[in-house]
Every structure is written in structure tokens, then in C-alpha cells.
Amino acid sequence: MAAVFSKPLAKCFPDSIISQLFPPPSTFDPLRDIPDLTGKVAIVTGGAVGIGYHTVLALLQKNVKIYIATRSETKVNEAIRKLQEETGREAIFVHLDLADLASVRRAVRELANKEEKLDIYSTTHQLTAQGYDLHFGTNVLGHYYFTSLLKPLLKRSTQLNREKARVVFTSSNAFEYAPGDGIEFDVLKDGPARDAKIKEYGFSSIPGKGAVWKIYGLSKFTANIFQRDHADEFSSYSVHPGGIQSELTRHSNSFEQLLSKAVMKPTPMGALTQLYAGTMPEAGNVPGGYFIPWTRLAEQGPRFKNEKLQKRFKEWVDAELRAFAESSEGGWNA
């Protein structure tokens, strides 16, 4: 039934949440449409499971040399074994915990010792070790620091290939849940102000309501800001993978898991839009684009036009990372 209405929805309300939940059928087939990528080097965060796994699988099938950056060695070893069985090619493990900035720096050092360039960087998804909110630490701060340290490898790719390297940030339409103008600075780092805000937000399992949803929305909102920030140096994109069955639902209650199975799409489909942004020539024509299911270019809304807020947020993040770098061995650089 949903398929009957998906095309009219996409035509009349192309950027709506309902159209993103029930998108028209995809015309993009990675195995058929992605060109041969022999000689390319890629890294995928969270590539051992879920959407990340299927992203790695598709890139290996196109002859990419690929690194899986994740923190679970057990999961990644099993993934590498399965990927080799399916493709005959072997992915490479790099230990990375995006919730720990020291781990981020070690991962970049390891990669830089092995490679002179990086062509594709694709991101897929407690307080962090440095005291930041976990959603913010892993979805934003860790990825921003990782991307900043990877810049020399990405720039080298641009020089060698005479086309910009690509960075694909995984977002979602959950940025709509971000409170106020999109950023509440008080909730970004542990402390009394954050505790007060969480109490003010309250708790709710209803999407968009309560502290968990609002802070998660904030993390996705700010991730999209950083995607725009890097657009001049390499082709960067943010993508909403769609309503996808994944490990993210493992902590949901029974009703939510039942609803997820009824509405959500198979996990491999979650890789479609980020593969399109990361590999297809057509996506190269819209650097800085935001893509929604399946491979559709979309607008992000008026809150992303607040340049004053974006400038303040970037300055805040740079100051936090600088303070971390100055207090730890090795400074800012990897």
C-alpha cells in the first residue's frame, strides 16, 4: 500500500518526513551503477555491522581498498571474514572509539602510517571519555576531530586524482527534534547546567519528545553544520539513510521493536544513499548536498541558515578540541 502513495508523496511533499519514511522505489543499484574504483582508498566508521557493513561490502565489490574503523575487534574480525567470503577481498581493521578523542588521534596516526591519501570517508553510527554527551561525542565531536585530522590525506587525494575527495556524514531527519534554534550549548558537556536542561526536557519514548530525543536531534543538527563547514576543502555530504532496521533498535521496548519491523526497511537499503553520495559522478555536481532516501537531494530547512549560530558553534567546538589537544600528548595534530 505504501508503494502506491510513495511517488505522489515524493512529488507533492518531497522533503517531508512521511516521504522520507515511505520513499519511492530506488533506481540506484550499487553493483550495477557504481563505476570501478580500483586504486581508491576508503574508510568507513562503524563498518562491521548494519548499514556500515553493507557500505563496505559494496565498496569492496568495486575494488576499493577499505578500512573499517570501529572499536569492537570481535565484531570486525567476524565482519572481515564474511566480507572476504562474499567478495574475495579483505577489509582492514583500524581501532577507533569516536567517544574517546585520544582514540580518534591514534586511529589517524595508524592510517597515515599506511596510506598517502584517502579518497572516501563515510560515517555510520554514556558520556564520552572527555565528559561530553554520548550522542554529541560520537555523532559530532568525534567525527569532526577525526575529519580534521584526516584533512592532509583527503587533500592529497584531491591533488593526485584532480577531483575532490568525498566525505559522507550520516545524518537523519531527527535533526527536526533539536530544541530551539537547533543548538543548546548547556547540554553539550557534563555539568549542572546540562542536568538542569535534561530535567526541563523530561523523559519520553515518543519521537521528538523528552531529553533523549532532543539531544539526539541536536547531535544530528550539528553534524549537518559540520558537513557544510568542510565543503570548500573536499566534497562533503550529509545523508539520511532512511527508516532502517538496525542495531540502534536493540534497546527499544517490545512495541517499538514490533513497529520497527513493520515500517522499517531492510538494512542493506540504508547504504544506498551514502554509497550514491560517496561514489557517483552525479553527486559530485552538488558538493555540500543533503540527500534523503533514496538518493534524493533535499533542503534542510531555515534553521540551517543561521550563520551567527553556526559560527558560534564552530568556535565552541574548536576551543574544546584545542583544550583537549593542549592537555594531551602530541597536541592538535595526529
From TrEMBL:
Superkingdom of this protein's organism: Eukaryota
A Pfam short name: adh_short
Source taxonomy: Eukaryota, Fungi, Dikarya, Basidiomycota, Agaricomycotina
Keywords in alphabetical order: NADP, Oxidoreductase
Name the record gives this protein: NAD(P)-binding protein
GO molecular function: oxidoreductase activity
Entry's family note: Belongs to the short-chain dehydrogenases/reductases (SDR) family.
Species annotation: Sphaerobolus stellatus (strain SS14)
Gene3D superfamilies in the record: NAD(P)-binding Rossmann-like Domain
InterPro entries on file: NAD(P)-bd_dom_sf, SDR_fam
UniProt KW Transmembrane keyword: no
